[in-house]
Amino acid sequence: GEDWRAGGTVNWLMVYKMNQYLEKAISAKVFPEGVEDYVRKHRNDIAEEYHWRVGLTKQVDNVLFGLTKQIGEVRKQMEPQQQRKVVALRRGGDADEGGAAHRRTATAG
Q1: Of these four, 16, 21, 60, 66, which has the most CB atoms within 10 Å of its CB?
Q2: pTM exceeds cut of 0.70
Q3: What is the rounded distance in angstroms from the CA atom of residue 19 to the CA atom of residue 14?
Q4: Residue 13: which of 4, 24, 21, 26 has the closest Cα?
Q5: CA–CA separation, 4 vs 20, rounded Å?
Q6: What is the pLDDT along the chain (109 residues), one digit of tens a residue?
Q7: What is the 8-class DSSP label of residue 30?
Q8: CA distance linking residue 2 with residue 14, whole number of Å
Q9: Is residue 30 within 8 Å of residue 24, measured between CB atoms?
Q10: What is the Cα–Cα distance from 33 to 73, expressed in whole angstroms?
């Protein structure tokens, strides 16, 4: 059937046809047959919409999973660099403190 989402724009003729059909389906005279007929004719559209939503959700999940994985990889690569920086800072800090303590001891004695 026609896809009312085609090209990301609303197919107004399709909307009009659907509206006409729904009006006919809910009119008092043809209500039971109209609804049954509508459901029979459009159940594939409903299933298609459901599959489309499920497919889209899966795609979004896959993208998020991929991004999470990439972020994890980047973090792993950054960790050794950060650890080296921390070690260098600590060594620099320890050396300064040790030197200052040594100088204080030497001058006090």
Answers
A1: 21
A2: no
A3: 8
A4: 4
A5: 15
A6: 455 455 556 678 888 888 877 777 666 565 666 677 777 777 777 677 777 788 888 888 888 888 888 888 888 888 887 788 888 888 875 544 455 555 555 555 5
A7: T
A8: 8
A9: yes
A10: 59
